Amino acid sequence: MSKILIIDDERAIRRALREILEFEEFEVDEAENGREGLDKAKADNYDIIFCDIKMPELDGMEVLDGLLKAKVDSPVIMISGHGNIETAVQAIKKGAFDFIEKPLDLNRILVTIRNAKDKTVLIEEKKVLKKTVKRFKGSSIIGETPEIIQIKEMIEKVAPSDARVLVTGENGTGKELVARSLHDQSSRSSMPFVEVNCAAIPAELIESELFGHEKGAFTSAVKQKKGKFELASGGTLFLDEIGDMSASAQAKVLRALQENVIQRVGGEKDIKVNARVVAATNKNLREEIEEGNFREDLYHRLAVILMHVPALNDRRDDIPMLAEHFMTMVCAEHGIARKTLDESALMALSKTDWSGNIRELRNIIERLVILCDEVVSGDDVKLFANPRTAKK
């Protein structure tokens, strides 16, 4: 449910606008002057803000300046009964999403809200893309061994459905790449792909990260925050290292999967979510269940489709292809002419013990790009590769 803030000193306008918005099933909050409105907008997350121009304390333009300075991303729709073209242009130039004159027209309000919500979705997608585009630039599932061909075929079959997938495999094998491929080939590809590394987040914060929190839920909760389940609604939620999730969070994730609803930390309201969940782990969850570390009912909810990504040592025939792929990608990232791996280098890489899997191979290729001449030889690989990986 979208949350909207109305900032207007006229009670009648606030009431009329509230009735319209609540009839359309929006959650509405009010502020009777500019100062109160600015404080509320800074302290909470609103999907859209309606702001009057002529107000005591702070006028609408000053509120708009304050929102921009505080880096509040919510689209701001300016409203005024004393508007003219000059005022509207000034507001838009300052960063307002739109300008509506009083008396307010119902159809104009609803169309503007719809357009503003579309902008909000684009802003969130842009944030996610900025974080991931560099990491995934030029990446794809590389390989032609039977194990990798089987994974590609499974992705092609499973991606169009909303079936939950559990991806298993050692660290560095490319489980996240499998999850992203499932998303990119699904009908949800135009919506966000949201990742949560369950092992990297402290147990006391994982629930807030997944489900969000209300203002004041705990000491540092100075404003409302949406969780990853909400942010991924309509798209895909990737729960990496699910085996490291706390027992309390497991119970809440199970409810979210069963009922498609969540509750923010410190909140009592059920929030509907619609995210396809893809989980990954490097642990044997069957053993974790026997030891009491993982819920069996959650396992069965997650493991509708099981996909195992093989270790690099089990797909050595793919190493030359992967090495060439990373050589092209790393040289482009460093802005240098592409270097060449000769036959002896490819042979040495194929005989190396890759305990760190594909992630380690990429790191070695980057080291070779930085330290070697235009042609990388087998001696270079033996010299600059991690000594412990040399296969005897």
Give an overview of the whole structure.
The chain is an alpha/beta fold. It folds into 3 domains: 119 residues, 3-Layer(aba) Sandwich (Rossmann fold), CATH 3.40.50.2300; 174 residues, P-loop containing nucleotide triphosphate hydrolases (Rossmann fold); 77 residues, Helicase, Ruva Protein, domain 3. Helices cover 46% and strands 15% of the residues. It has 16 helices and 16 strands. Strands 2-1-3-4-5 form a 5-stranded parallel sheet, with helices on both faces. A 5-stranded parallel sheet has the order 7-10-13-6-14. A two-stranded antiparallel ribbon has the order 8-9. β3, α3 and β4 form a beta-alpha-beta unit. α13 crosses α15. The C terminus is likely disordered.
Summarize the structure.
The protein is α/β, with parallel strands linked by helices and 392 residues long.
Integer average pLDDT: 89
In CATH, the homologous superfamily of the largest domain goes by the name: P-loop containing nucleotide triphosphate hydrolases
Q: How many beta strands in the DSSP annotation?
A: 16
Rg (C-alpha, Å): 26 Å
Biggest sheet, spatial arrangement of strands? 2-1-3-4-5
Quick one: CATH class of the largest domain? Answer: Alpha Beta
Q: Count up the domains.
A: 3
Strand content: 15-25%
DSSP helix fraction: 40-55%
Q: Which structural class fits the helix and strand makeup? A: alpha/beta
Give the name of the CATH architecture of the largest domain: 3-Layer(aba) Sandwich
Q: Main sheet, how many strands, which sense, barrel?
A: 5 strands, parallel
Q: Any low-confidence stretches, pLDDT <50, length ≥5?
A: 133-139, 387-392
CATH topology of the largest domain: Rossmann fold
Instruction: Calculate the terminal CA-CA distance, rounded to whole Å.
Output: 61 Å
